[in-house]
Automatic annotation (TrEMBL):
Residues 43-76 are annotated as: Disordered. Belongs to the thioredoxin family. DsbA subfamily. Residues 57-254 form the Thioredoxin domain. This is Disulfide bond formation protein. InterPro entries: Thioredoxin-like_fold, Thioredoxin-like_sf, Thioredoxin_domain. Keywords: Disulfide bond, Membrane, Oxidoreductase, Redox-active center, Signal, Transmembrane, Transmembrane helix. Signal peptide: none annotated. GO terms for molecular function: oxidoreductase activity.
């Protein structure tokens, strides 16, 4: 009959359309993977410190993508950008810990004071671990202002000393009052070289897009609050005891399955 399409013809058309969609998705995914792999391969590793810690963990002789431990449920969250001022450790380290944090968060301060120094000594300085910061300002306007200030310090290569100074001065409970004057004083204590530039940069909006991108990444991962961490895609929520982090890192280095 004119205008009548048989079920067989309709089915074939549907199969052709689905095949076309599948091919398009496969090509796009392949392109993304190639771009990411090329970015990782071209990243120049930074030179980690040489001081040792108490752990017997040593850096692998090679840290290519094939050598890295398998990823957890969060997938690949690391950026591994060479020269990133908001990161500590080599871009080719086999394990990357992503920290989603707010400078007014008391539990982030606890992690900074108690756990981070241990991880730096045991793993970062041996090329085993990289720590990458992500801004997640969730405690009001002062949190955003503090994130801008930290980026302003980073522009002068002073991100980590500034962050550590902020957290060292934080109260054990509650959120600190981080006014512009307080942030300036903390930058001075941290040793930020050019305080005039710091004041100008920290009160501008030039870093807002990057801060918002970090916040969006955290929200896309379903992170409810700070601090929150991804260790090679394995989530750790809250300021957990230091041995929670060291045990997880040691298991990843040893290639052991991660449960729980």
């Amino acid at each position: 009959m004119p205008g009548h399409t048989s079920p067989t013809t309709t089915s074939r058309r549907r199969d052709v359309i689905l095949l076309g969609i599948a091919v398009t998705v496969a090509v796009a995914l392949g392109a993304v993977l190639l771009i990411r792999q090329g970015h990782h391969d071209n990243a120049a590793p930074s030179t980690p410190g040489t001081q040792g810690g108490a752990s017997s963990v040593t850096a692998p002789t090679s840290a290519t993508a094939a050598d890295r431990p398998s990823l957890g449920p969060l997938g690949e969250v690391a950026r591994r950008e060479a020269g990133d001022p908001l990161a500590q450790g080599s871009p080719t380290a086999p394990i990357v810990l992503i920290e989603f944090a707010d400078l007014r968060c008391p539990f982030c301060a606890q992690f900074s004071r108690q756990t981070e120094p241990v991880l730096v000594e045991r793993y970062v300085k041996k090329g085993v671990l990289r720590i990458e910061w992500r801004d997640m300002p969730i405690f009001g306007a002062q949190s955003t202002a503090a994130a801008r200030a930290a980026r302003a310090a980073a522009a002068q290569g002073w991100f980590w000393p500034f962050v550590q100074t902020v957290y060292a001065a934080a109260p054990s409970t509650g959120h600190p009052d981080l006014t512009a004057a307080t942030l300036h004083d903390l930058a001075r204590k941290a040793g930020v070289p050019d305080l005039v530039r710091f004041d100008a940069d920290s009160t501008s909006t030039q870093f807002d897009a990057a801060i918002h991108a970090d916040l969006e990444q955290g929200q896309s991962l379903g992170i409810p609050s700070t601090p929150a961490f991804s260790v090679n895609g394995h989530p750790v929520l809250g300021a957990q005891p230091t041995d929670v982090f060291t045990t997880l890192i040691d298991q990843l280095v040893a290639g052991k399955p991660i449960t729980g």
